[in-house]
Amino acid sequence: MDFEPPPMRTVTCNNVDIPYLAYDGDGPPVVLLHATGFLPWLWHPVAALLAPAHRVIAPFFGNHRPSDPRNGGLDWLQLARDLERLCTALQVQDPVLVGHSMGGTVSILAHVTLGVAVRHMVLIEPIFLPAEIYRMKITVEEHPLAAKAMRRRNSWPDREAVRADFMAKPFFRNWDPAVFELYITFGIRNDPAGGVRLTCPPEQEAALFMGGGHHDPWPLLPAVQCPTLVMEGEDSENRPWIDLTHAANLIPRGRHIMLSGAGHLIPMERPGEVGRALAGPVLSVKC
Protein backbone atom coordinates (compact mmCIF):
# COMPACT_ATOMS: atom_id res chain seq x y z
CA MET A 1 0.00 0.00 0.00
CA ASP A 2 1.35 3.40 -1.00
CA PHE A 3 -0.82 5.54 1.29
CA GLU A 4 -2.78 5.47 4.52
CA PRO A 5 -6.57 5.29 4.70
CA PRO A 6 -8.28 8.65 4.19
CA PRO A 7 -9.97 10.39 7.12
CA MET A 8 -13.50 9.35 7.94
CA ARG A 9 -16.21 11.58 6.50
CA THR A 10 -19.87 11.79 7.46
CA VAL A 11 -23.02 12.56 5.49
CA THR A 12 -26.41 13.15 7.08
CA CYS A 13 -29.26 11.21 5.49
CA ASN A 14 -32.78 11.44 6.94
CA ASN A 15 -31.36 12.77 10.23
CA VAL A 16 -28.89 9.88 10.53
CA ASP A 17 -25.14 10.44 10.24
CA ILE A 18 -23.53 7.81 8.02
CA PRO A 19 -19.73 7.58 8.26
CA TYR A 20 -17.74 6.59 5.18
CA LEU A 21 -14.28 6.54 3.66
CA ALA A 22 -13.82 8.21 0.28
CA TYR A 23 -11.02 7.66 -2.23
CA ASP A 24 -11.16 10.22 -5.02
CA GLY A 25 -10.95 9.03 -8.60
CA ASP A 26 -12.33 9.63 -12.08
CA GLY A 27 -13.44 6.16 -13.16
CA PRO A 28 -16.67 4.27 -12.46
CA PRO A 29 -17.57 4.43 -8.75
CA VAL A 30 -17.04 1.41 -6.53
CA VAL A 31 -18.87 0.97 -3.22
CA LEU A 32 -17.34 -1.48 -0.74
CA LEU A 33 -19.65 -2.93 1.93
CA HIS A 34 -18.12 -4.64 4.94
CA ALA A 35 -19.17 -7.76 6.82
CA THR A 36 -21.10 -7.98 10.10
CA GLY A 37 -19.17 -6.40 12.95
CA PHE A 38 -16.29 -5.29 10.74
CA LEU A 39 -15.11 -1.97 9.36
CA PRO A 40 -14.56 0.00 6.15
CA TRP A 41 -10.86 0.46 6.93
CA LEU A 42 -10.29 -3.24 6.28
CA TRP A 43 -11.04 -2.56 2.61
CA HIS A 44 -8.07 -0.19 2.37
CA PRO A 45 -5.69 -2.58 0.52
CA VAL A 46 -8.44 -3.19 -2.06
CA ALA A 47 -9.35 0.50 -2.33
CA ALA A 48 -5.68 1.39 -2.72
CA LEU A 49 -5.49 -0.86 -5.79
CA LEU A 50 -8.57 0.78 -7.35
CA ALA A 51 -7.94 4.47 -6.61
CA PRO A 52 -7.30 6.92 -8.23
CA ALA A 53 -8.54 5.17 -11.38
CA HIS A 54 -11.92 4.79 -9.64
CA ARG A 55 -13.88 6.70 -7.07
CA VAL A 56 -14.19 4.38 -4.09
CA ILE A 57 -16.69 4.74 -1.24
CA ALA A 58 -16.67 2.49 1.84
CA PRO A 59 -19.45 3.20 4.35
CA PHE A 60 -19.36 2.15 7.99
CA PHE A 61 -22.60 0.31 8.71
CA GLY A 62 -21.67 -0.60 12.25
CA ASN A 63 -22.49 2.00 14.87
CA HIS A 64 -24.54 4.60 13.01
CA ARG A 65 -27.85 3.07 14.18
CA PRO A 66 -27.45 1.69 17.71
CA SER A 67 -29.91 -1.20 17.99
CA ASP A 68 -31.19 -3.71 20.50
CA PRO A 69 -30.36 -7.31 19.54
CA ARG A 70 -33.27 -8.51 21.72
CA ASN A 71 -35.76 -6.38 19.79
CA GLY A 72 -35.13 -7.62 16.26
CA GLY A 73 -31.70 -6.08 15.84
CA LEU A 74 -30.80 -3.83 12.90
CA ASP A 75 -32.80 -4.90 9.85
CA TRP A 76 -30.54 -5.31 6.81
CA LEU A 77 -33.20 -3.70 4.62
CA GLN A 78 -32.63 -0.57 6.71
CA LEU A 79 -28.95 -0.80 5.82
CA ALA A 80 -29.95 -1.12 2.16
CA ARG A 81 -32.01 2.08 2.52
CA ASP A 82 -29.04 3.80 4.11
CA LEU A 83 -26.90 2.67 1.18
CA GLU A 84 -29.44 4.08 -1.26
CA ARG A 85 -29.53 7.42 0.58
CA LEU A 86 -25.75 7.55 0.86
CA CYS A 87 -25.35 7.03 -2.89
CA THR A 88 -27.95 9.73 -3.60
CA ALA A 89 -26.33 12.21 -1.21
CA LEU A 90 -22.85 11.60 -2.66
CA GLN A 91 -24.13 11.52 -6.27
CA VAL A 92 -22.83 7.98 -6.77
CA GLN A 93 -24.55 6.67 -9.89
CA ASP A 94 -24.45 3.12 -11.32
CA PRO A 95 -21.71 1.92 -8.99
CA VAL A 96 -19.99 -1.40 -8.83
CA LEU A 97 -21.29 -2.82 -5.54
CA VAL A 98 -18.85 -5.08 -3.71
CA GLY A 99 -20.28 -6.69 -0.60
CA HIS A 100 -18.66 -9.11 1.80
CA SER A 101 -20.88 -11.40 3.91
CA MET A 102 -23.60 -9.07 5.29
CA GLY A 103 -22.56 -6.50 2.68
CA GLY A 104 -23.35 -8.93 -0.12
CA THR A 105 -26.90 -9.46 1.10
CA VAL A 106 -27.39 -5.72 1.64
CA SER A 107 -26.29 -5.23 -1.98
CA ILE A 108 -29.02 -7.60 -3.20
CA LEU A 109 -31.67 -5.88 -1.07
CA ALA A 110 -30.63 -2.43 -2.32
CA HIS A 111 -30.56 -3.45 -5.99
CA VAL A 112 -33.67 -5.64 -6.22
CA THR A 113 -35.96 -4.48 -3.41
CA LEU A 114 -35.15 -0.76 -3.58
CA GLY A 115 -34.26 -0.54 -7.26
CA VAL A 116 -30.76 0.89 -6.87
CA ALA A 117 -29.16 0.92 -10.32
CA VAL A 118 -25.90 -1.04 -10.28
CA ARG A 119 -23.25 -1.44 -12.96
CA HIS A 120 -21.93 -4.73 -11.58
CA MET A 121 -22.09 -6.64 -8.30
CA VAL A 122 -19.43 -8.70 -6.59
CA LEU A 123 -20.80 -10.79 -3.74
CA ILE A 124 -18.04 -12.20 -1.56
CA GLU A 125 -19.32 -15.02 0.67
CA PRO A 126 -22.80 -13.41 0.90
CA ILE A 127 -25.08 -14.57 3.69
CA PHE A 128 -27.90 -16.42 1.93
CA LEU A 129 -29.20 -18.64 4.72
CA PRO A 130 -31.34 -21.71 4.01
CA ALA A 131 -34.84 -20.40 3.22
CA GLU A 132 -36.50 -22.09 6.19
CA ILE A 133 -34.36 -20.10 8.63
CA TYR A 134 -36.00 -16.84 7.53
CA ARG A 135 -39.35 -18.25 8.66
CA MET A 136 -38.09 -19.00 12.16
CA LYS A 137 -38.27 -16.73 15.19
CA ILE A 138 -35.19 -17.21 17.34
CA THR A 139 -33.82 -15.37 20.33
CA VAL A 140 -30.35 -13.93 20.72
CA GLU A 141 -29.42 -16.90 22.88
CA GLU A 142 -30.60 -19.30 20.16
CA HIS A 143 -28.75 -17.50 17.35
CA PRO A 144 -25.26 -19.05 17.26
CA LEU A 145 -23.48 -15.98 15.88
CA ALA A 146 -25.38 -13.35 17.86
CA ALA A 147 -24.91 -15.32 21.07
CA LYS A 148 -21.20 -15.63 20.38
CA ALA A 149 -20.94 -11.90 19.65
CA MET A 150 -22.59 -11.07 22.99
CA ARG A 151 -19.90 -13.07 24.76
CA ARG A 152 -17.04 -11.40 22.92
CA ARG A 153 -14.31 -9.89 25.06
CA ASN A 154 -14.42 -6.09 24.96
CA SER A 155 -11.77 -4.71 27.29
CA TRP A 156 -7.97 -4.65 27.12
CA PRO A 157 -5.36 -2.44 28.76
CA ASP A 158 -3.90 -1.31 25.41
CA ARG A 159 -3.50 -2.21 21.73
CA GLU A 160 -0.45 -4.37 22.37
CA ALA A 161 -2.59 -6.56 24.60
CA VAL A 162 -5.19 -6.72 21.83
CA ARG A 163 -2.53 -7.69 19.29
CA ALA A 164 -1.21 -10.48 21.52
CA ASP A 165 -4.74 -11.74 22.22
CA PHE A 166 -5.77 -11.74 18.56
CA MET A 167 -2.54 -13.28 17.27
CA ALA A 168 -3.17 -16.29 19.51
CA LYS A 169 -6.62 -16.92 18.01
CA PRO A 170 -7.10 -19.25 15.01
CA PHE A 171 -9.69 -16.77 13.68
CA PHE A 172 -6.90 -14.38 12.63
CA ARG A 173 -4.34 -16.97 11.54
CA ASN A 174 -4.80 -16.49 7.79
CA TRP A 175 -5.31 -12.73 7.74
CA ASP A 176 -3.09 -10.61 5.52
CA PRO A 177 -0.65 -8.82 7.89
CA ALA A 178 -1.57 -5.37 6.60
CA VAL A 179 -5.29 -6.00 7.12
CA PHE A 180 -4.61 -7.35 10.60
CA GLU A 181 -2.77 -4.15 11.51
CA LEU A 182 -5.64 -2.07 10.12
CA TYR A 183 -7.98 -3.96 12.44
CA ILE A 184 -5.73 -3.31 15.43
CA THR A 185 -5.56 0.39 14.52
CA PHE A 186 -9.18 1.11 13.59
CA GLY A 187 -11.14 -1.82 15.01
CA ILE A 188 -10.13 -0.82 18.52
CA ARG A 189 -10.97 2.50 20.16
CA ASN A 190 -9.80 4.21 23.32
CA ASP A 191 -12.13 3.81 26.28
CA PRO A 192 -12.70 7.07 28.21
CA ALA A 193 -12.67 5.00 31.40
CA GLY A 194 -9.24 3.61 30.51
CA GLY A 195 -7.89 0.90 28.26
CA VAL A 196 -9.33 0.09 24.84
CA ARG A 197 -12.51 -1.48 23.44
CA LEU A 198 -13.91 -2.76 20.16
CA THR A 199 -15.04 -0.06 17.73
CA CYS A 200 -18.15 -2.14 17.00
CA PRO A 201 -19.39 -3.21 20.45
CA PRO A 202 -20.53 -6.80 21.01
CA GLU A 203 -24.16 -5.74 21.50
CA GLN A 204 -24.20 -3.90 18.19
CA GLU A 205 -22.55 -6.81 16.37
CA ALA A 206 -25.23 -9.09 17.82
CA ALA A 207 -27.92 -6.64 16.65
CA LEU A 208 -26.51 -6.83 13.12
CA PHE A 209 -26.57 -10.63 13.19
CA MET A 210 -30.16 -10.61 14.41
CA GLY A 211 -31.14 -8.12 11.71
CA GLY A 212 -30.06 -10.51 8.96
CA GLY A 213 -33.01 -12.82 9.50
CA HIS A 214 -35.82 -10.49 8.47
CA HIS A 215 -35.71 -10.84 4.66
CA ASP A 216 -35.16 -13.97 2.57
CA PRO A 217 -32.86 -13.00 -0.32
CA TRP A 218 -33.36 -16.20 -2.35
CA PRO A 219 -36.54 -15.05 -4.19
CA LEU A 220 -34.71 -11.85 -5.18
CA LEU A 221 -31.81 -13.47 -7.02
CA PRO A 222 -33.61 -14.11 -10.36
CA ALA A 223 -34.47 -10.39 -10.48
CA VAL A 224 -30.85 -9.19 -10.40
CA GLN A 225 -30.35 -7.12 -13.54
CA CYS A 226 -26.58 -6.67 -13.67
CA PRO A 227 -23.61 -8.99 -14.15
CA THR A 228 -22.78 -10.52 -10.79
CA LEU A 229 -19.70 -12.36 -9.58
CA VAL A 230 -20.13 -14.62 -6.54
CA MET A 231 -16.85 -15.36 -4.79
CA GLU A 232 -16.62 -18.29 -2.38
CA GLY A 233 -13.79 -19.53 -0.17
CA GLU A 234 -12.94 -23.19 -0.60
CA ASP A 235 -12.37 -23.54 3.15
CA SER A 236 -15.31 -21.39 4.26
CA GLU A 237 -17.20 -22.75 7.24
CA ASN A 238 -20.41 -21.61 5.51
CA ARG A 239 -20.15 -24.04 2.59
CA PRO A 240 -22.09 -26.91 4.24
CA TRP A 241 -25.18 -24.73 4.69
CA ILE A 242 -24.96 -21.92 2.07
CA ASP A 243 -25.03 -23.07 -1.57
CA LEU A 244 -23.37 -20.20 -3.41
CA THR A 245 -23.06 -22.14 -6.65
CA HIS A 246 -26.85 -22.42 -6.71
CA ALA A 247 -27.14 -18.73 -5.81
CA ALA A 248 -24.97 -17.73 -8.77
CA ASN A 249 -27.02 -19.97 -11.07
CA LEU A 250 -30.23 -18.21 -10.01
CA ILE A 251 -28.83 -14.83 -11.03
CA PRO A 252 -29.41 -14.32 -14.80
CA ARG A 253 -25.88 -13.08 -15.44
CA GLY A 254 -24.30 -14.68 -12.42
CA ARG A 255 -20.87 -16.27 -12.29
CA HIS A 256 -19.31 -18.27 -9.45
CA ILE A 257 -15.64 -18.63 -8.61
CA MET A 258 -14.01 -20.63 -5.84
CA LEU A 259 -10.83 -19.37 -4.19
CA SER A 260 -8.69 -22.30 -3.15
CA GLY A 261 -7.31 -22.14 0.37
CA ALA A 262 -9.50 -19.18 1.37
CA GLY A 263 -12.09 -19.10 4.13
CA HIS A 264 -15.12 -16.90 4.73
CA LEU A 265 -12.98 -13.80 5.31
CA ILE A 266 -11.67 -13.48 1.76
CA PRO A 267 -11.08 -9.68 1.82
CA MET A 268 -9.07 -10.02 5.02
CA GLU A 269 -7.11 -13.06 3.83
CA ARG A 270 -6.62 -12.29 0.13
CA PRO A 271 -7.05 -8.52 -0.44
CA GLY A 272 -4.65 -8.53 -3.38
CA GLU A 273 -6.67 -11.14 -5.27
CA VAL A 274 -9.92 -9.27 -4.57
CA GLY A 275 -8.43 -5.99 -5.76
CA ARG A 276 -7.00 -7.51 -8.92
CA ALA A 277 -10.32 -9.23 -9.71
CA LEU A 278 -12.10 -5.91 -9.42
CA ALA A 279 -9.52 -3.92 -11.33
CA GLY A 280 -9.67 -6.39 -14.23
CA PRO A 281 -12.75 -7.58 -16.11
CA VAL A 282 -15.31 -6.65 -13.43
CA LEU A 283 -14.88 -2.91 -13.86
CA SER A 284 -14.96 -3.14 -17.64
CA VAL A 285 -18.43 -4.75 -17.85
CA LYS A 286 -21.53 -2.59 -18.07
CA CYS A 287 -24.95 -3.53 -16.68
Automatic annotation (TrEMBL):
Q: Where are the transmembrane segments?
A: none
The protein here is known as Alpha/beta hydrolase
Tell me one GO molecular function of this protein: hydrolase activity
Organism, by scientific name, is Desulfatitalea alkaliphila
Signal peptide stretch: none
**Top-level taxon of origin:** Bacteria
Q: Taxonomy-wise, where does this protein's organism fall, top ranks first? A: Bacteria, Pseudomonadati, Thermodesulfobacteriota, Desulfobacteria, Desulfobacterales
What SUPFAM superfamilies does this protein map onto?
A: alpha/beta-Hydrolases
Matching InterPro entries: AB_hydrolase_1 (IPR000073), AB_hydrolase_fold (IPR029058), AB_hydrolase_sf (IPR050266)
